[in-house]
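Researcher: Next entry: Heavy metal resistance protein (Sphingopyxis witflariensis).
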Amino acid sequence: MRTNVRMILCVVACLVAAVAGVFIGRSLFPAPAQPGAELHDVLHHRLKLDTVQEAKLEALEARFAVQRRALELELRADNARLADAIQAEHGNGPRVAAAVDRSHASMGELQKATLAHIFAMRQLLRPNQTAQFDQAVVKALTDDQR
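Model: Predicted structure:
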């Protein structure tokens, strides 16, 4: 009986230590900001969009979310084809090279779609809003994301 109590206390102590470790780790080493988070903040909080701009922005974002999801699924499929090619060839053979090329093409399509989305959002802005938006875009592209 006494051994069971000790075991339970040990498990509880381990659980408390683990939770405390996670809390301390998150406090000392916060997660890095997501790429584009500042751009989102600029658009939705700092630029003071009017109701027409907000409505148009919501529509753009909804359309892009669908497009982005489709392109990301294509990238996942490309990765699966690459994995299959690597497993079949066990080296940098023609199937691997073709799968890499296809993956790069899909990545390029996602990047082009993202840029088109950024430019479409910019078109919604008034001239006095574009400079701040442009700065946020440049920062999102050039900040070191370590």
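Model: Note for the record: The domain at 35-142 is CATH 1.20.120.1490 (Four Helix Bundle (Hemerythrin (Met), subunit A)).
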